[in-house]
Amino acid sequence: MSTLDMITALLVCGITAVAVCSGMIVRFKSPKPRAREESENYYESIASSKRQRLGRLSDEPQVELSIIVPAYNEEERLPVLLNDVREYVEQRRKKEAFTYELLIVDDGSHDETAKVALAFAAKHSIQELKFVRHVINRGKGGAVTQGMLSALGRYVMFCDADGATRFSDIDALLADMDGTRPVVAIGSRNNQALGDTVVERSHVRAFLQWAFHTYVTILGVRGIRDTQCGFKVFTRHAARMIFPCMHVERFIFDIEVLLLARYQGIRVIEVPVNWHEVAGSKMSIVRDSIQMALDLLAVRLNYMLGNWKVDKKA
Q1: Backbone φ and ψ of 51, nearest 5°
Q2: Which of 34, 76, 81, 278 is the most buried (most CB within 10 A)?
Q3: Distance CA 298, CA 124 (A)
Q4: Mean pLDDT of 98-107
Q5: pLDDT of residue 193
Q6: pTM reported for the whole predicted model
Q7: Cβ count within 10 A of residue 138
């Protein structure tokens, strides 16, 4: 066998191996979101003794801001965020009339998350708090997506239940959004050079974020310094264009959000936020990092191969 034949054979074997691996990743790692259970179309609140039906993202907005909080076994950390939101609302209402809704999407918790949330609402007379229970755990991305699809705000945001990001930083994200065109504003923990923000994280977490950012850049999500910060705001138009198209229900969902924004020409802006690491994360550094890497590759392959389509009718 000549040298040329050997090189050709190696190339064929290499291409075949890549194709087989890609096919296996697409087949076995592609997310398959489940349909909503009927009970998941309703929420609880202190405003009524009966459960009320959730709104729809396709409806006309009824409040200024929807706040979506995915929660899984967050009885200890959730009160910090709830109090942060309450203080923000009180301060804003001193300046202007402000309407909002706060959707806590309980993703199959086994602790007292529901009791804690509703007790907080009762103590502070927060009728705007709506508590949604998932029958089966979907994952953070699934909880966020289901909340977004039920939002009634002119602006729609999601934030982590741990209160790691100072909630009042939302004003900085809203500053460049006028609601007349689709825009996504994302909090960034890597933009401290742009403002007087403070970020506190462990060295291990900082290294993993750098490694993940490098991997994301290689796979084609460029120009975003911090894809994973759980503090993102959308105009209603942008949310309508993105979330009905979502597939990913686990931690990597942020990447699909940004991919869908890019595919549809939606403006994405990064804004520095104050952030500190909070104990009690449900994420396993090693296991979930590997899972996220495989999920991201599956997402990229599905869009590249045309298995997933982008609906631009929203």
Answers
A1: -70, 140
A2: 81
A3: 44
A4: 98
A5: 46
A6: 0.86
A7: 24
Pairing status of strand 48-53 against strand 129-133: unpaired
Provide the residue type at 196 as one letter.
D
Specify the higher pLDDT residue, 112 or 293: 112
Question: Are 77 and 163 contacting, i.e. CB atoms less than 8 angstroms apart?
Answer: yes
DSSP 165: B
Token pair recorded at residue 9: 């054979």
Computed on alpha carbons and rounded to an integer, the radius of gyration of the chain in Å comes to: 21
Chain segment 160-217, per-residue pLDDT in tens: 999 889 999 999 999 989 878 999 999 998 755 445 555 555 566 666 666 666 766 6
pLDDT at 205: 61
Q: How many residues does the chain have?
A: 314
What's the 3-state SS for 66-125? EEEEEECCCCCCHHHHHHHHHHHHHHHHCCCCCCEEEEEEECCCCCCHHHHHHHHHHHCC
Distance CA 116, CA 114 (A): 5
